[in-house]
Amino acid sequence: MPLIQRLSSRVIVCFKRVEYFADWMTGAAGPVFVFICWTLIALGGVIYFDVVARSFSPLGLLFMSPLLCLVPLNLYGQYYLVTHVPPGFPSPKARGEDRDISWLIPNPKSIWSGERWGFKKRRELTGPSSGGAGGYNTAPGSGLGLGDGVWEGAGRRVRRCRKCDGPKPERTHHCSVCKRCVLQMDHHCPWINACVGLHNQRHFVLFMAWLSVGCTIVCTTGYHHFLDTFSYRAEWPALTPKLGFTLIYVLCGAIGFAVTVLMLWHMYMVSYGETSIESHDNAYLAKKAKKEGLIYLNPFDLGRRRNIELFFNIAPGGYSPYTLLFPLVIPPASNGWSFPRRALPQHPPKNPSGLHAPELAEGLIARANGPASGLGLGLGFDDGADPRDHGDGNGLGGLNGHAHAEDGMGGYVMGDEEGLTDDEEGGGGWMDIGTPGLGQDQAQGHHDYY
Ligand SMILES: [Zn+2]
Ligand SMILES: [Zn+2]
């Protein structure tokens, strides 16, 4: 028996080492990936202008000029931003220095700032306060009304990260490559050598979108030149050798296709109000809930249009949709510590099996079958021991996503508060941050780290 125990612990140690090495490799190779990325998009641009754009007729050039300006501007601008704007962290780095980015984000005079170019926030709306939750539930720049989802305070208590011992607000995850917690983490991307999170996800998706547009333009308008590279008799006035253009053209086709698929997949998740990590959780929870005849709803899913508006912060209270056309830093709609939550459905859905899986997502569970008893729902993964204090008397009745069945809502209960993936990376318990009635200033101090 001791031999087996020793063997199994040995295997676990080995696995941990492999995992640690993989994380280290991802981090160490990051700058190489970024260099490759810059080289490819720079070469692609130069070669396109040299080979294809030079052959345009004056009329064609006039017709194409908006795209010929906007695509390179956004391609290089968004890539620069996604690699330079930090994803957002709930706490300063445990060791070493945080990169100084004061010139980039809080400074409205920065050349990258949307404000500097006249893009002001259209309306200063604050979400309804759910009361007694310090400064966290009124996210600056929320721009939401009551009907649009409720800003649920992260509360005075947040989870503690087991790995870095820092605060871990909702939707925050610990990145093992960056070795710190990241606000609304999506994934760690080696191509940008950073995590995609709250502050840079907009640039990430927009970069992919503009890269898709760029590759499509190269593949369509460069098709004849591509055919010419195989002909010995064709005129070739460009400085780029034929082989160079052939290679770039094929790369554009392959990368363009892959990036377009990836971008559409991301937009699909955004439209359902979930990150890549949450998408895994939600699919798992939906399956689990379905087995028990329950419906699992994503509390951050406010409807497709609203989710997309909030993601890009172009909701009626946010910034102009024209900001999508320029590589500008636009602050996210949320401060990363609290997010607007959807209202609970008033009635159990009639046809639960017709719902799409991502709609059956994290957070709220609705009884799908039969009239709700309100009590004793027998949820396999809701132990009823809610770690948060929800009795804060917020006056929003059963609409704030924290309604228990006992509230008379008929069969809706709060879901898995701990989060499933957090079992591995969290499990650090809870920590108190701030006290009730604390001024916004001190509360802000916790989420001003980028
Ligand atoms: Zn952490
Ligand atoms: Zn990371």
Task: Provide structural commentary.
The protein has 450 residues and is mainly α. It has a domain at 28-86 and 201-338. The protein is 37% helix and 8% strand. The strands form 5 sheets. The chain has a 3-stranded antiparallel beta sheet with strand order 3-2-12, with no helix packed on it. A 3-stranded antiparallel beta sheet has the order 8-10-11. Strands 1-9 form a two-stranded antiparallel sheet. A hairpin with a 6-residue loop joins strand 2 (157-160) and strand 3. Helix 1 crosses helix 5, helix 2 (58-84) packs antiparallel against helix 3 (201-221) and helix 3 packs across helix 5 (242-271). The longest helix is centred in the first third of the chain and has 50 residues, at 2-51. 40% of the residues are buried. Residues 125-148, 352-415, 417-426 and 435-450 have low confidence and may be disordered. The site of one zinc ion (ZN) has 5 residues, from loops.
Fold blueprint:
Elements: H1 2-51, H2 58-84, E1 150-151, E2 157-160, E3 167-168, E4 173-175, E5 180-182, E6 187-189, E7 194-196, H3 201-221, H4 223-228, H5 242-271, H6 276-291, E8 294-297, H7 304-312, E9 340-341, E10 364-367, E11 412-414, H8 422-425, E12 430-432, H9 440-444
Shape: globular
* Major pleated sheet: 3 strands, antiparallel
Q: What is the count of helical runs?
A: 9
Q: What small molecules does the structure contain?
A: zinc ion
User: How much is the average pLDDT?
Assistant: 73
Q: What is the end-to-end distance?
A: 50 Å
| Structural class by secondary-structure content | mainly alpha
Q: Output the radius of gyration.
A: 25 Å
Instruction: Give the helix proportion (percent range).
Output: 25-40%
Work out the number of β strands: 12
The helix/strand order is: HHEEEEEEEHHHHEHEEEHEH
Strand portion: 5-15%
In what order do the strands lie side by side in the largest sheet?
A: 3-2-12
Low-confidence stretches: 125-148, 352-415, 417-426, 435-450
